[in-house]
Structures are given as structure tokens and as C-alpha cells.
Amino acid sequence: MAGNHSRNKGYRGERELVKILQEAGIKAKRVPLSGATEFQKGDIVFKSGSRQYNIEVKRRHKVNSLLYNMLENSDFGALRADNKGWIVLMPLETFIRLLNQEDENGHFRDDDKGK
Predict the structure, then answer these.
(1) Which of 26, 40, 87, 110 could form a disulfide with 21 if both were Cys (CB 3.0 to 4.6 A apart)?
(2) In this predicted model, what pLDDT tens digit does every residue of 55-105 receive, in sequence order?
(3) Does residue 106 form part of some domain?
(4) pLDDT in tens, 29-57
(5) What are phi and psi of 46, to 5 degrees?
(6) Looking at the 3D structure of the chain, how many domains does it have?
(7) What three-state secondary structure class fits 70?
(8) Is the residue at 10 inside a domain?
(9) In this structure, is residue 63 part of a structural domain?
(10) Beta-strand (E) ranges in 1-115?
(11) What residues form DSSP beta bridges with 102?
(12) What strands lie across the sheet with 51-55, from one edge to the other?
């Protein structure tokens, strides 16, 4: 039974994030049977410019407070485990703003042009 509860919580998290992204104008969709097949990676897919991205969604009762603490006084956080690459952490609102600044070719629009 605990497995069903955890899976359902994951589905709810995926649907919640898809809805937020779609309301922000990002054409995101949930990947059916994500995690059950090697066909498509990630739980959510979306396109920005000419590139397709995927998002792995994890919804937990507890998340390491370090992640949230990093963003208390900064726009982004960056962390790296030994022998691994860097990961950049940001609030969802910042992520959406950055995506909405990309043009159809995946380049960022220059808001300062002509000023």
C-alpha cells in the first residue's frame, strides 16, 4: 500500500508542475508511464526554442534544508558532489522567467536592445 501512496504522490507532483508550467505559457506535458520504460527519460517534457528538455520530478515530505537555505539570499544555488558535475538550483519562478526569455532558436532575447 505504501508503494501506491508514494506513486500517487509522484503523479500529483508531476501534474501540479505541468499545470504551473502550462499556466506560464510553457507547453509542458507529463510522460505517460515515466520510470517504467527506457523510451522517454524524465517525468515531464517541454520544448524551448528548437530543443526538447525533460524534468525528473521528486516530491518528498522532507527535502534537505541545505537546498532551500542556499536560495534564502541568492537567486541561484550551485552545488557539486565529489567526482560529479555542478548542479544549479533556482526557484521555479526564476526558471519560468528564464524560459520565457528564450526565442524560437533557444537564444535569450536581449531586453536592452535599442536602449
Answers:
(1) 26
(2) 999 888 888 888 999 999 999 999 999 999 999 999 999 999 998 886 666
(3) no
(4) 998 876 666 666 789 999 888 888 999 99
(5) -155, 160
(6) 1
(7) helix
(8) yes
(9) yes
(10) 29-30, 44-48, 51-55, 77-79, 87-89
(11) 108
(12) 29-30, 44-48, 51-55
- What cell was used for 26? 510553457
- List all residues 6 or more positions away from 21 whose beta carbon is below 8 Å from its beta carbon: 28, 44, 46, 96
Q: Indicate yes or no: pTM above 0.85.
A: no
Q: Distance (Å, rounded) from C-alpha 65 to C-alpha 11?
A: 23
Residue 43 lies in a domain: yes
**Residue 54: which domain range?**
2-100
- Pure H helices in 24-52: none
Cell of 18: 505541468
Distance CA 103, CA 50 (A): 9
Question: What single DSSP character describes residue 5?
Answer: H
Domain harbouring 18, CATH code: 3.40.1350
